[in-house]
Write a structure and sequence with these properties.
The protein has 178 residues and is α+β, with helices and mostly antiparallel strands. It has a single domain (3-172), classed as Aminopeptidase, CATH 3.40.630. The protein has five helices and eight strands. The strands form two sheets. The protein has a five-stranded antiparallel β-sheet with strand order 1-2-3-4-5, with helices on both faces. Strand 4 and strand 5 form a beta hairpin.
């Protein structure tokens, strides 16, 4: 199940989105911030597999977690990916920490979409009763660090707790009384 904001709709990735997913995840300027080590997509077939894996992740995930295509309401253009997912610990264990994330196509950078989607994701997480949501970012990813600040996330400093690599970490907690 997706969600929305004033300008964006988060929905299930569809097979028809594979070309856009390929154009997003083949780009070094996007993929360099994802994974350890980063691995850009190299084929449309790889994009189809990724889209299918996102749908499977959604089928297997408990509310509020998921990975969604993020599209503009006015044009239907997929601007990227929005996600809430259980963070993979460096020791191989899973949970219980949940990550908020965004992967935007460069043609959609600078429009405030990451912040808008991030707010909606945090609202979704806190409405479901999560006590904390984390963001993990490569230290030189200034744009995503700026998004965490706009979201009011508190910096926790560098950690290698997740993904097996040292990343800057941030946390958001539900508003007091909320």
């Amino acid at each position: 199940m997706g969600f929305g904001t004033a300008r964006l709709r988060a929905r299930e990735w569809a097979d028809a989105d594979a070309e856009r997913a390929y154009d997003l995840y083949r780009r070094d300027e996007v993929s360099r911030w994802l994974g350890s080590p980063p691995a850009p997509l190299t084929s449309l077939a790889g994009a189809r597999e990724r889209v299918a894996s996102y749908r499977q992740r959604n089928a297997d995930s408990a509310h509020p977690c998921g990975v969604w295509a993020l599209e503009r309401r006015d044009t239907g253009l997929v601007v990227g990916t929005a996600l809430l997912k259980v963070l993979p610990r460096s020791d191989g264990a899973t949970g219980p920490d949940v990550e908020v994330g965004w992967h935007l196509h460069p043609d959609s950078w600078g429009s405030g979409y990451a912040t808008e989607a991030g707010r909606a994701l945090l609202d979704r997480a806190f409405a479901a009763g999560l006590p904390a949501v984390y963001a993990v970012v490569y230290a030189d990813n200034a744009a995503s660090i700026a998004v965490t600040r706009r979201l009011g996330m508190a910096p926790l400093g560098p950690t290698d707790r997740w993904y097996g690599v040292t990343l800057e970490s941030f946390v958001a907690r539900p508003p007091a009384g909320g």
